[in-house]
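Students often ask why we bother predicting the structure of a whole assembly rather than each chain alone. The short answer is interfaces. A chain on its own may look different once its partners are present, and contacts between molecules only exist in the joint model. In this exercise we take three input lines together and write out one structure for the complete complex. Read the inputs first and try to guess which parts will touch.
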Amino acid sequence: MANGQEGGMSMREQAIVDKILEKAPYAEGKVRRERRIEFTVPAERIRDFLTLLKKNNFELMLQITPVDWPNDGEIELIYQIWSVTHRTHVMVRTRIPRELEKARMPTVKDIYPVAETYERDAHDFFGVYFEGNWKMEMPWILDDTEQDIYPLRKDFDMLQYVKKKYKILDRFDENKDNYVI
Amino acid sequence: MVDWRLFEPLFEFARKRSLWIVSFCTGCGGIEMPPLMTSRYDLERFGMMANPAPRMADLFLITGYVTPKTLKRIIITYELQPDPKYVMAHGSCPLNGGVYWDSYNAIKHLDKYIPVDVVIAGCMPRPEAVMDGINKIMEMIENGTADSWKRYKENYEWYKKNQDELFGEGWREREARRWIPWLMDKKEE
Amino acid sequence: MVAQSELIKEARENGMDLLPLDKDTYELFFGPQHMATENFSIILKMDGHRVVEAIANPGFLHRGFEKLAEFRPWHTNVALLLRVCVPESDVPETIYSMAVDEIIGWEVPERAQWIRTTVLEMARVSSYLFWIMGLSFKLGVYTAGQWAAAYRERLMALFEQLTGARVYHIYTIPGGVRRDIPSDRWLHQLKDTVEYIKSKLPDFDHLVFENYITFKRMEGIGVMNKKFALSEGVTGPNLRATGVPYDVRRADPYLLYPELDFEVPVLNEGDALARALIRRFELEQDLYILEQLLDMGPPSGPYQVSDPRLKNLPRFKVPAGDAFSHVESTKGDFGAYVVSDGKNKPYRVQIRGPSIAHGIRVLEHLLVGSRIADVPVILMSLDNCPPDIDR
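Now the answer. The structure tokens for the assembled complex follow.
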């Protein structure tokens, strides 16, 4: 597999990271492996940083991945961008608080227009509110009944919810920690 | 006045030989419908064909898992069909949830919400299994046991209660009005 | 008979005056019960037969894979996540397996890599044939559709011999593949099938891709340019039809693709016809890749990594870490991001379907100004796959 190739192969990626970090001293960056780099950026500078990336030929935004870390009380947002020019995948990590009223981010839809869709997705499943995206309240994948429960958060008790919603089932009474499907 | 009940066996025979399907891919089973309809398995020799409008269809194939959002459309489409109408559920998921048995957004027992005549097990059921199910439903039509549409009428309160429990009271109106705020006028971009 | 003014008044009172009622405008809820959309809905604001505004309404196929994956052991997830992409179910299994391999640091044996590549290419060919079937049904060229479905059945039969299933194969697992190639006879059959489909390509050209009707219906419809496509995150054949030679198999090579020789077809027009022709050229390239793979022959060796932990799959633990992997599917760039926290279940799995980029905003943009009859053609030319939007 590709992660076996190490050593001198990642010089090109290191050059990209250095170039970006020179202009953005607030960020931290490293090379993960060949064609994979990552940056960690404070949440309030994310728009500056993505503008910088867009200027440096990182064209395609692939996805915005929220990851819930309830132990740290934070939601991690990972902006994953692919550069057709540099042939490199970049992850821009940032962390925001987990509480619903504090989980707010500025939108990046004017930098990457496709981010509008990903932000709607993140809002529907994680309750992260992106300020400036007027489609935030528009109906997306989830139905009305799931509107305010944010099912992909770690504290959403799925089995309890399913049992209540669909009014079944003996199998759910098994010990949840140990079931093997 | 003619007593049409005398001709009922003839009608049943005719119905059995011209089942038109509502073309509604409700789930992943939709992927096996084109092979079934085309030259290899060729369902048209049974007198079946996929029909765009529910108004002219007899058979509703629930192809695969059903999410609550789809179920609303399924119920509306099902009620649009004229009598007699038959429902065939396709795959394990409408039967008992299948692999989505713990999913928060998949229906576990379809027959609580609309009546089902024949269920084909399997994930995904092979085209042969679907054809077997169709044979079964033809048999049932001929001997008059495919009576789900009658059951739906007789037990409408029960079905309606289950539907309302799942979606909340007045879901039809809410669903119809859901998009109105977004269609009213241009928002500033 | 009620006067129209009264009707308008009543509609206003009930908050139903969406568009000026005196003009020829109306709202059309297109789908989900429609042959072209496969359980996907578009709300169209129409003026006569022209679309004024379109709003995509996904979510009919949402099953919450990303949540369910957190509840299942690592290997069981393969049987779940492949349902993200129905016509090409090997793609989600492969990206998930590749990401897990990367987290663990497994070197997948060469034979497994060969089988994975072959299965991916077979899936691509069958998915393109399925797409040709859909396109020709939407254009009204039914003969070609029947042929494409029949040729796809040959690949389905081969898949069945290899994996035991027609649609959901559950074949590529972390660490290799689930079982070995059944026999040399299977390889011969695959070779025959590839040759057979290749010999039938001129027929498809004759009926669909060189057909006057196709050109009339698809030329100049749904045009997007390079800048727009890149900023909207469009990938795959749709992006290559606008002149960007981005193919994951070349740009971020995985499995055996660095050793294989193939072209990445690029067109500059960016309309529905260009997108259709790109897919036609890629089908030819995929058959060529399969020929090369068969000439190469499967390398000898094991088809799975040998690891004592694989004996007890439910308790199998993956070290903490995260990885992103993506492959080129017929729809575009299909990616998976997997996070592990060292337990026997994933901490987070996200699947990035290509349709989430071109099925929502791009579709809404392209439909504006088109005729109602062109809506299915644009949908088909984008190759929109609703399950990977909804997941």
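Check your guess against this: The CA atoms of residues 202 and 209 of chain C lie 9 Å apart.
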